[in-house]
Amino acid sequence: MSLEGVYDYVDAHADSFVEDLVKLVKQPSVSAKGEGIEECAILVEKMLQEIGFSTKIIRGEKGHPVVYGEIRSEKSDRTILFYDHYDVQPPEPLEKWMCEPFSGKIINGKVYGRGASDNKGNFVSRLKAVQTLLEVAGDVPVNIKFFVEGEEEIGSPNLEPVIKKYRDLFSADAAIWEFGGTDRRGRPNLYLGLKGVLSVELKASCASRDVHSANAPVIPNAAWRLVWALNLLKDKEENILIEGFYDNVLPPSSEEIECLENIPFEEEEFKKELGLKEFLQNKSGLKALKALLYQPTCTINGFISGYTGKGSKTVLPHEASAKLDFRLVPNQNPTEIFQKLVRHLKKHGFEDLEVIKHGSTEPTRTPINDPFVKLVAKTAEKVYGKKAVIYPTSAGSGPMHLFRNFLGYPVVSAGCSHPEANTHAPNENLKIESYIKGIKFIATLISDFAL
Questions:
Q1: Helix (H), strand (E) at residue 391
Q2: Which domains does the chain carry?
Q3: CB contact at 8 A, 55 and 67
Q4: Dist. CA 72–CA 79, nearest whole Å
Q5: Number of CB atoms found within 10 A of residue 34's CB
Q6: 331-368: per-residue pLDDT in tens?
Q7: Nearest residue to 179 (alpha-carbon basis) of 406, 426, 411, 14
Q8: What values do phi and psi take at 308, rounded to 5?
Q9: How far is CA 18 from CA 75, 97, 194, 263, 440, in A?
Q10: Residues 198, 328: contact at Cβ < 8 Å?
């Protein structure tokens, strides 16, 4: 099969490929709210079927459906699996968008909309790569599986039972994970692992209703109660104060440190993009990169209490809630960290707080010297014309451990995004040029995987 013929087909059908991406972006699928989830799962299945995949919508006892697709090769017994997700983050704050968040509007060569980059763009680029191979060669060179879930953006809380029940269905020789792309200099970035995550909510409740703030000398304030509790979790030096939090942290190996030294960390561009003069604690260079990838975290995602509208309201809130996430590194376990958090709060007199666990995943990594890592890196360099930048792990999180640790095959994260994609933020977008290049990359990778 001629890769030149594959590339020519992609270029000739670029407009229709973009139309299919826009169609998926236009379908809301906000997992946190359950908005459009069923409709999007059906659309994803239809898109797989239209290309020739045999499909199955898998429903666990709880949670959103998983869309599974499989197409078998007449030439090979090898199997590559693509993990993607059709759910997206909430689009708020809506007033910050230059267009409707589910419009799929094309502006200056970019598709705008929630999910355009994370993760619908990557999913459709992979789908179109398979379509191209089928149209050009009449077959795929290896067996191909798609695993497209609907809860990634809320921590995949119901995925583990599905993986364990259908482990034979999801078997493969290797997998490509959902995210990735190029840096500001056009170099393809590959990620070999993910941090774990524990998402929690803390709730403080005092009086039965809000009261006038003149009563502050005698009525407990839920907002202050929660602030004091949060103050026990981390100090100003970024040290997490939960007893035993760092007990199982596995430091990076010498091989991983050597890999970090070869990563061209674009810190000045990163700071300029965010309007920052410096990173936390004035970290820089290798120290900043090492912290980003290997430092566990405790982050306040949001705080709600009392009156937050225009002007002033002299109110004493009776309820307060905060959402947090903990990013975890090997060998931290999210269940143990949750237990330590609860014990820590009780020990310091905050046993009255409600502590809710919303979701969690475990940290995981694929070894740098795995043959599949070398294959993906070689293919990326061939397509992009620049040596791939390999990250031993990522600062992000997801259920990769279920595929890497439980199902047992190598996993590499690679995609078609770009640094200004605004994932999880207003004006999320995907460059059409990057999307088309990503289709060619995946088509080439599938071909190389067969060799």
A1: strand 389-391
A2: 3-195+363-449 (3.40.630.10), 196-249+296-361 (3.30.70.360)
A3: yes
A4: 9
A5: 13
A6: 999 999 999 999 999 999 999 999 999 888 999 999 99
A7: 411
A8: -130, 15
A9: 30, 21, 29, 32, 14
A10: yes
